[in-house]
Amino acid sequence: MRLPFRFAGQSFEALGSGALWWPSERALLVADLHLGRPDRMARRGGALLPPQGDAETLERLTAAIEAVRPARVISLGDAFDDAAGPEGLLAADAAVLRRLQPRADWTWIAGNHEGLTTPGFGTALAEWHGGGIAARHVARPGAGPDISGHYHPKARLAGRLRPVFLVGAGHLILPAFGAYTGGMDCTRAPLPGLTVPGLGIVTGAVPRAFPLR
C-alpha cells in the first residue's frame, strides 16, 4: 500500500515498506539500509544479530523496486554499516544487490557510517539534487527543502514504536529501511524542530498519517 502526500511542491508516495516513491523523478528513495550490520557487530564483539537481516532488507528492497519500476534508486546514506560493510555481506546477499543495480540508475549518498568512500557497488556522493530538492544523509536546518534519513524516526502507537516518515515544511525524513536498525522516538530533539508542525506517516501494510504537533 502507498499513501500520497505533498512536500516542497512535489507529489510523493510513502510505501508501507518505508521506501519513498517520487513519481515526477521516477525515483525510489530508501534510507539507512545498514547492510553488513551483523558482520560489523560480530567483528567488534557486540550483540550478535541474526545473519538473515541483510537478506530481509534486500528482499524488501527488491519488492519495492518491483512495485514501482523506478528509473533511479537513491540510497540516502548508511547503505552499509561501515566502510567494510560490502566485504561483510554474505555472497548470496551481495549477488542480490548486484542483480538489482542494473534495473535502475543508482545514487549512493554517503552517510556517517561508511563516510565518503566507495561502498564497493558504486561511488558515494555528498548529496544529490532534483526537482528543487536536495537528497542528503542528514537534514540541514535552514538549508531545505531536503529529503534525508539518519535519525531512524519512530512513532509510538499502541504502546510500541513503529517506523515513521516525518514530513515538515522544509524537511522530509525517512525511516530506516534496514532490518535490526533500531530507531529514535520522533518526539525527541532535534526531530520536532525539523518537522513540527507537519505530518507523520507510520509504515506497515496500510500506511497511516497523523499530525505532528
In the CATH hierarchy, the architecture is 4-Layer Sandwich
- Envelope shape: globular
Distance between the ends: 25 Å
**Order of SSEs, N→C?**
EEEEHHEHHEEEEEEEEEHEE
Provide the helix percentage: 10-25%
If you consult CATH, what is the topology? Answer: Purple Acid Phosphatase, chain A, domain 2
The description of the largest β-sheet is:
9 strands, mixed
Give start-end ranges of low-pLDDT stretches. Answer: none
- Any idea how many domains? 1
Number of helices: 5
Q: Number of DSSP strands?
A: 16
In terms of DSSP E residues, the strand content is 25-35%
Show the helix and strand layout.
Elements: E1 2-7, E2 10-15, E3 20-22, E4 27-30, H1 37-43, H2 53-68, E5 72-75, H3 85-88, H4 91-100, E6 105-109, E7 124-125, E8 128-130, E9 133-135, E10 146-148, E11 153-157, E12 160-167, E13 171-173, E14 184-185, H5 191-195, E15 198-202, E16 208-212
Parallel strand pairs: 4-5, 5-6, 6-7, 9-10, 10-13, 11-14
Antiparallel strand pairs: 1-2, 2-3, 3-4, 8-9, 11-12, 12-13, 12-15, 15-16
Describe this entry's structure for a reader.
This protein has helices at residues 37-43, 53-68, 85-88, 91-100, 191-195, and strands at 2-7, 10-15, 20-22, 27-30, 72-75, 105-109, 124-125, 128-130, 133-135, 146-148, 153-157, 160-167, 171-173, 184-185, 198-202, 208-212. The chain is an alpha/beta fold. It has a single domain, classed as Purple Acid Phosphatase, chain A, domain 2 (4-Layer Sandwich), CATH 3.60.21. Strands 8, 9, 10, 11, 12, 13, 14, 15 and 16 form a nine-stranded mixed β-sheet that branches. Helix 2 (53-68) runs parallel beside helix 4. The radius of gyration is 16 Å and the shape is globular. It starts with a strand and ends with a strand. The model has no long low-confidence stretch (mean pLDDT 89).
